[in-house]
């Protein structure tokens, strides 16, 4: 039997409005609404009164969404607003134009393409798909849940009237996320108005797609646009530093240093994420002194900031410093994650610190509850293989919870070649050639193992196998970068 709520709807609405800026308080109100029976359908309530019950659901869904994207995301799962929506429909409440943007953001957070499509159907059914705010959220959700870019474009084209800047930015983001960079560039050029979000969206999309030089050109265009009097935002600076970090040669370093100079000149606060991008940029270009200085300049460090420094040190032969910095990181109360342990295991493998590496690999699972990925197993196999401990390396591969890929076998093959373990090298070579039949490097490595063992006939036969399969050895090349142009 339905228990009557001791609170009037007016009182509950007042409480929700008063505590709306505080998501955790709204969760307490959610419990109050459930226990008081205020969210249960009331057959005595008029149709007009029933329509307004969408308000508490909208408030609660928004609160759950804000908590799910907060650093303490365990407080509320990303799918909580979607579950609230199901309860809302079961209670007979009618969702309105304020309901769907939050729900679509929740679908984006969970990456659920099915949820985005189902919500679109609900919007169409209730005649809300034409609403500008809802349509913009649909475009963004389709872009972020893995739908083809044509789905976002279809919603965009069906919007009533001339699309505003927010809708254009949402479609531009959807095109970039789908990897349709050519269409994104064309659409960007045709946009009647652009803001910092437009430029940053295209810049980051090009950088994610590996077109780092094009990303820098877009950044230069942004500076030459009508934004010279406006300070660059954190998102823009992080995106351009990412492009600089991944652009090989002197051009990437020069551009990254120019961005750093801009930040110093305009006294841009070095936040954790901006500092991480700067540390990563200097680290990937081997400027460890600048890398350390940028790290020290970040006051509010995060785990990602430590990871950028540890990765830079591990990849440039500073293995001992990696271990020292790792202990400092733990002493300051930061919990290492998968990227942290990858840098640590890489340093141990390159320094030959077998027992230290094995200790931290075991602690990674037992103490820190971090699930190892393929790359972590690859590091452990490399660690044991470099030390010539092939039996243990094979045992690690056999105990892996998933089938080893070419990177794991390749690490062991390189160790076999280093120590002259011909028998195991040939066995691994056959596995690699089955996994990657068109990878010339595997054939060349096996051929070299034969030749170094003095088996010239087998080595020549491996060359003939490559020729019969039409596999050509990748030719080594050199290039010089002159004024930003690569000359072979």
UniProtKB/TrEMBL annotation:
PPR repeats lie at residues 164-198, 302-336. Coiled coil: none annotated. Keywords: Repeat, Transit peptide. The keyword Transit peptide applies. The keyword rRNA-binding does not apply. This is Pentatricopeptide repeat-containing protein. It comes from Urochloa decumbens.
């Amino acid at each position: 039997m339905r228990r009557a709520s001791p609170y009037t709807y007016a009182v509950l609405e007042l409480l929700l409005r008063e505590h709306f800026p505080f998501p955790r308080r709204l969760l307490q109100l959610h419990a109050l609404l459930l226990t008081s029976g205020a969210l249960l359908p009331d057959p005595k309530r008029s149709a007009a009164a029933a329509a307004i019950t969408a308000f508490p659901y909208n408030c609660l869904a928004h609160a759950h969404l804000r908590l799910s994207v907060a650093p303490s995301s365990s407080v509320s799962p990303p799918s909580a607003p979607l579950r609230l929506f199901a309860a809302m429909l079961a209670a007979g409440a009618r969702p309105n134009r304020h309901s769907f943007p939050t729900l679509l953001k929740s679908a984006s957070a969970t990456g659920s393409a099915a949820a985005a499509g189902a919500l679109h159907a609900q919007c169409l059914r209730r005649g809300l798909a034409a609403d500008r705010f809802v349509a913009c959220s649909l475009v963004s959700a389709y872009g972020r849940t893995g739908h083809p870019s044509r789905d976002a474009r279809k919603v965009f084209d069906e919007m009533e009237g001339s699309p505003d800047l927010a809708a254009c930015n949402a479609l531009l983001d959807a095109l970039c996320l789908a990897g349709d960079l050519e269409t994104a560039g064309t659409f960007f050029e045709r946009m009647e108005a652009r803001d910092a979000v437009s430029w940053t969206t295209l810049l980051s999309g090009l950088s994610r797609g590996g077109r780092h030089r094009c990303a820098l050109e877009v950044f230069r265009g942004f500076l030459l646009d009508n934004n010279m009097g406006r300070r660059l935002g954190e998102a823009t600076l992080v995106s351009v530093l990412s492009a600089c970090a991944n652009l090989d040669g002197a051009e990437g370093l020069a551009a990254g240093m120019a961005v750093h100079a801009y930040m110093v000149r305009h006294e841009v606060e070095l936040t954790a994420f901006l500092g991480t991008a700067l540390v990563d940029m200097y680290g990937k270009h081997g400027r460890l002194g600048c890398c350390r200085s940028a790290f020290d300049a970040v006051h509010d460090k995060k785990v990602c900031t430590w990871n950028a420094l540890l990765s830079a040190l591990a990849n440039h032969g500073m293995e001992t410093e990696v271990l020292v910095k790792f202990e400092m990181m733990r002493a300051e109360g930061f919990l290492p994650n998968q990227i942290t342990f990858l840098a640590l295991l890489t340093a141990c493998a390159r320094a030959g610190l077998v027992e230290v590496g094995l200790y931290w690999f075991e602690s990674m699972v037992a103490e820190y509850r971090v699930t190892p990925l393929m790359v972590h197993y690859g590091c452990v196999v490399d660690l044991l293989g470099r030390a010539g401990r092939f039996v243990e390396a094979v045992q690690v591969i056999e105990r892996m919870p998933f089938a080893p890929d070419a990177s794991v076998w390749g690490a062991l093959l390189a160790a076999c070649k280093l120590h002259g373990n011909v028998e195991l090298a040939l066995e691994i070579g056959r596995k690699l050639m089955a996994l990657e039949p068109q990878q010339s490097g595997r054939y060349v490595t096996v051929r070299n193992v034969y030749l170094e063992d003095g088996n010239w006939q087998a080595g020549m036969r491996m060359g003939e196998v490559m020729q019969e399969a039409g596999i050509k050895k990748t030719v080594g090349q050199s290039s010089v970068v002159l004024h930003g142009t690569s000359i072979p």
